[in-house]
Design a protein that fits this description.
The protein is mostly helical. It is 76% helix and 7% strand. The chain contains five helices and three strands, in the order E-E-E-H-H-H-H-H. Helix 1 packs antiparallel against helix 2. The N terminus is likely disordered.
């Protein structure tokens, strides 16, 4: 890809095919723009990897427990098949990372962005902690209490993200819906097994 200067529109743009009427752009600010895109792409990838890493840490506790301990529990009729959880969480962590990136890059009011980022961090830690409590420690009661706290922290994060980037807040909606379902499932598993 090369940057070119269009004489007719007096602007720089990238173009794969250089025509005779276009000259190579000499404006150095264009090149800084390329590095900004790379930096932003790097930040986007970093935020997605961070969120997916939370899923990997949680899966350390989840995967071994599913065929052993979890399979022995009585579950409600609406319990989805085990194979569904992995793909759903993979997508949700991706959306969370994208949402985090949008807030981080929003350039919004620092007094709103910083608490939003902290709230996101808290809910991400609570997300991992739920897997530790439920699948790692097999504690149905404390995992239910914790998932309620997780739900509240996601709601707070969503509201704060909405103040900075509506798109970022909308990307968190599937997450809070799934955690609502997971909390209901956690509650019924607790009731059916105590």
């Amino acid at each position: 890809m090369r940057f070119v200067f269009n004489k007719e529109s007096n602007s720089c743009r990238s173009d794969q095919f250089i025509e005779e009427r276009l000259l190579v752009c000499q404006d150095p600010s264009v090149y800084y723009g390329v590095f900004a895109v790379v930096r932003n792409l790097t930040a986007l990838i970093a935020f997605i990897v961070l969120c997916e890493l939370a899923g990997v840490i949680g899966s350390i506790f989840t995967i071994p427990a599913i065929p052993s301990w979890y399979s022995t529990l009585r579950k409600p009729w609406f319990n989805p098949p085990n194979w569904l959880f992995g793909p759903v969480w993979l997508i949700l962590y991706f959306l969370m990372g994208l949402s985090l990136y949008l807030v981080f890059e929003s350039g919004g009011n620092r007094a709103i962005v910083e608490p939003a980022l902290w709230a996101f961090g808290v809910q991400l830690v609570l997300n991992v902690l739920w897997s530790v409590l439920f699948f790692g420690m097999h504690n149905l009661f404390y995992s239910f209490v914790e998932i309620v706290l997780l739900w509240i922290s996601i709601a707070v994060t969503t509201v704060l993200f909405f103040m900075t980037s509506r798109a970022a807040a909308y990307l968190l909606l599937p997450y809070i819906v799934w955690v609502t379902f997971a909390a209901l499932l956690n509650y019924y598993v607790f009731i059916l097994n105590t």
